[in-house]
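TASK: fixed-backbone design
INPUT:
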């Protein structure tokens, strides 16, 4: 019965879809699977996800999958920015389908995502953020496009494929003091990275710019004619996955949020690091944010470092596991040497045991009284 209702409603318009989903047993199940994160002690308040707004710039190989994951996770609102159209040549990537070819990426994405989860609010902008006019509008929507109009978005995600757009997002976020995450996949499709940028606190995109940006080279001149960048749905899927994982950890406050996480598919290597901002950064707003961050840190009440004393004994663990030394006191004594007289407060890390001379068996050689010539002659006869 429910199955028939599901199919009937699937073919109705979007408005009816909202109602029809309430009949679906699946919706309940999806929610309870996410709520299980709370029961299992991973996230303290999963429902909070509905209160957040995320802006995604670039709805291509990484951005579209990122948007789908956040939609399925139940994010409150998504703002999508892109000026490209869906192309058949990009069907090796995830998300878009051949019948959507020719449609704008943001429109096609909105349609698909609304069908997946009609509870999410969508706001889409089909333009290039790097033009002066659009940049102003982009800044305005970042500052006012939150779930409640007039409030800023919680996070901006850069899923673009060029440095010019990254620098534009960087400029906007430095000016607004807006936290954002950058992502990228290499031209040869076998490596990628994500980076969390909190203006003033961690390095911005201009603090340590790539050579193309630092040398002011027009990146369009770098693209060889007839040669297109490689792309793999696997690498893009992995990068989108680690990006959204970091977004969830950042928004819902669980686990360790990565400031930089790389992915090298050739060696299955995931390097991590964090970078402090550059005090000589070219972006004046970055330098301004750095000063403000320093002031904020200085104003914080100083926390005293309390050193824990004594051994940590895990007596109260449920399995009764205890930590015991693998060597006995006696064995330790035997393998140690005498402890020298030391001033108070200084202890030895280890001591060198004394040489146990008597333990070496003495070998005595009896003199047979024979000369070397005699011995040599004997050996020859053997
Ligand atoms: Zn900077």
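OUTPUT:
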């Amino acid at each position: 019965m429910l199955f028939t209702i599901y199919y009937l409603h699937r073919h109705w318009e979007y408005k009816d879809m909202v109602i029809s989903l309430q009949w679906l047993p699946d919706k309940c199940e999806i929610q309870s699977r996410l709520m299980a994160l709370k029961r299992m002690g991973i996230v303290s308040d999963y429902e909070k996800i509905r209160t957040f707004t995320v802006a995604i710039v670039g709805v291509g190989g990484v951005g579209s999958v990122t948007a789908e994951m956040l939609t399925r996770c139940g994010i409150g609102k998504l703002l999508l920015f892109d000026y490209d159209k869906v192309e058949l040549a990009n069907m090796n990537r995830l998300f878009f389908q051949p019948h959507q070819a020719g449609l704008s990426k943001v429109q096609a994405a909105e349609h698909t995502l609304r069908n997946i989860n009609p509870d999410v609010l969508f706001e889409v902008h089909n333009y290039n953020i790097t033009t002066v006019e659009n940049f102003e509008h982009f800044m305005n929507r970042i500052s006012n496009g939150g779930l409640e109009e007039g409030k800023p978005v919680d996070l901006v995600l850069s899923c673009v494929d060029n440095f010019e757009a990254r620098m534009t997002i960087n400029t906007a976020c430095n000016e607004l003091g807006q936290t954002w995450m950058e992502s990228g996949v290499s031209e040869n499709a076998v490596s990628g990275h994500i980076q969390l940028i909190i203006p003033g606190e961690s390095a911005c995109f201009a603090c340590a710019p790539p050579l193309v940006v630092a040398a002011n080279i027009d990146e369009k001149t770098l693209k060889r004619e007839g040669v297109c960048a490689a792309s793999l749905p696997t690498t893009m899927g992995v990068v989108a996955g680690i990006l959204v994982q970091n977004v969830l950890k950042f928004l819902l406050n669980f686990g360790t949020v990565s400031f930089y996480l790389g992915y090298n598919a050739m060696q299955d290597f995931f390097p991590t690091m964090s970078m402090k901002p550059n005090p000589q950064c070219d972006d004046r707003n970055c330098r301004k944010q750095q000063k403000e961050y320093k002031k904020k840190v200085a104003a914080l009440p100083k926390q005293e470092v309390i050193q824990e004393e004594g051994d940590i004994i895990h007596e109260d663990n449920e399995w009764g596991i205890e930590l015991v030394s693998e060597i006995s006191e006696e064995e330790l004594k035997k393998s140690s040497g005498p402890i020298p007289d030391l001033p108070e407060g200084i202890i030895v890390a280890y001591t060198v045991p004394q040489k146990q001379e008597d333990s070496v068996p003495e070998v005595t050689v009896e003199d047979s009284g024979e000369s070397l010539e005699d011995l040599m002659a004997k050996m020859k006869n053997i």
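COMMENT: The radius of gyration is 33 Å.
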